[in-house]
Design a protein that fits this description.
- The complex is a heterodimer.
- Chain A is mainly alpha-helical.
- The termini of chain A are close together.
- Chain A is globular, with a radius of gyration of 19 Å.
- Chain A has a domain of 145 residues: Nitrile hydratase alpha /Thiocyanate hydrolase gamma (Nitrile Hydratase, Chain A, Alpha-Beta Complex).
- In chain B, strands 1-2 form a two-stranded antiparallel ribbon.
- In chain B, helix 2 runs parallel beside helix 4.
- Chain B has one domain.
- By secondary structure, chain B is mainly alpha-helical.
- Helix content of chain B is 52%, strand content 3%.
- Classes of the chains: A mainly alpha, B mainly alpha.
- At the A-B interface, helix 1, helix 3 and helix 4 of A face strand 2, helix 2, helix 4 and helix 5 of B.
Chain lengths: 243, 131
């Protein structure tokens, strides 16, 4: 699967060519910074938290002095990007697997249900949780830029922001899924959810078989970021196993 | 483009094992917010460049965590990177790479830059700050 992922990303790099520009012209409104393309309601930018500013101060001073290389820092951050935050989403999923009434609340009003677990930080967007079943598979994309439910999933992975993922997921979701190592039987319907400024989606994966004896914490360890974006489907029944 | 960083930069796990309390998942560090990853990367890179040893770093961080615990701050993992950042600021100053006053001045400059940059424009520091 790792190889497949890299192939997909290698393809992304090639196809991207002039990466952002391709997506932007298609989207029509996305500017140089896709993240900001949807938000026009502030005159000025929100000042980051004190700790975030302290890190920016440290980094900018050290980079200016030539003590560290900005691109090397970015590369390291990028590497760990996929580990930022997806545990929050995993806890939401595990709770839903373990508690039917929570699951109902999650599917009917995800904002409230997610807030029950103490996760917030969305800036006016609504969360919608979509459930995988034996006959339905959900996959999330943001065709315009890279809207992503970061309070529950952390920072978006590189491929999520790539123009090929953003365009091809809508045109050929089964093909994209195959590149992520997911081969869907014909009878499984694929639903593609395009994130917007107002709505961010989270996929509720199916609970793996033979996990009735696991508690919520153990269940959360089985949930992956990719499954919650919908580019993975079958989760392992034991931590460390590959499904 | 940072998209090209698919092969993992060599981060030796034995060094991470020095930091026994680092919140981890599957053997790799995890972060709750972007600044935590940036602070993490700064410490790793400065150490790699030889400005301090990883052992010095671990000792400084451990000292910071212990001090916070003595001040009866809850020692949960949500505070871990706060301690990490404070330790980094301290070690950077101890090693003469920067100093508390410069860090404070720069922090204020960044906050001002955010306040005065229209939405959607990249936030940059005024030219004068660099001189």
């Amino acid at each position: 699967m790792e190889t497949t992922r890299r192939d997909f990303l290698a393809g992304a790099i090639t196809v991207a060519g002039a990466p952002i520009a391709a997506g932007a012209s298609k989207a029509g409104e996305a500017g140089q910074n896709g993240e900001h393309a949807h938000a026009h309601d502030h005159d000025h930018q929100d000042v980051p938290s004190d700790v975030a500013l302290r890190v920016m101060a440290l980094e900018s001073l050290l980079v200016e002095k030539g003590l560290v290389d900005k691109s090397a820092l970015d590369a390291l951050v990028d590497t760990y990007e996929h580990k930022i935050g997806p545990r929050n989403g995993a806890r939401v999923v595990a709770r839903a697997w373990n508690d039917t009434s929570y699951k109902q609340r999650l599917l009917s009003n995800a904002d409230h249900a997610i807030a029950e677990l103490g996760y917030s930080g969305m800036q006016g967007e609504h969360m919608v949780v979509v459930e995988n079943t034996p006959s339905v598979h959900n996959i999330v994309v943001c065709t315009l830029c890279s809207c992503y439910p970061w309070p529950v999933l952390g920072l978006p992975p590189v491929w999520y922001k790539s123009p090929p993922y953003r365009s091809r997921t809508v045109i050929d979701p089964r093909g994209v899924l195959r590149e992520f190592g997911v081969v869907l039987p014909e009878h499984v319907e694929v639903r593609v959810w395009d994130s917007t400024a107002e709505i961010r989606y989270l996929v509720l994966p199916e609970r793996p078989p033979d996990t009735a004896h696991l508690n919520e914490q153990e269940l959360a360890l089985l949930v992956t970021r990719d499954a919650m974006v919908g580019v993975a489907r079958d989760l392992p029944s034991r931590q460390g196993d590959r499904a | 483009m940072t998209i090209l960083t698919l092969s993992r930069p060599g981060l030796k796990t034995e060094r991470l094992d020095d930091l026994l309390t680092l919140p981890r998942e599957g053997g790799e560090p995890i972060f709750a917010e972007p600044w935590q990853a940036q602070a993490f990367a700064l410490a790793v890179k400065l150490s790699e460049q030889g400005y301090f040893t990883w052992k010095e770093w671990a000792a400084t961080l451990a000292g910071e965590i212990k001090q916070a615990a003595n001040a009866t701050e809850p020692d949960d993992e949500s505070k871990y990177y706060h301690h990490w950042l404070t330790a980094l600021e301290r070690l950077v100053s101890t090693k003469g790479l920067s100093d508390p006053q410069s860090l404070l001045t720069r922090k204020v400059a960044w906050a001002d830059a955010y306040r005065h940059t229209p939405h959607g424009k990249p936030v940059t520091l005024p030219e004068t700050i660099h001189s």
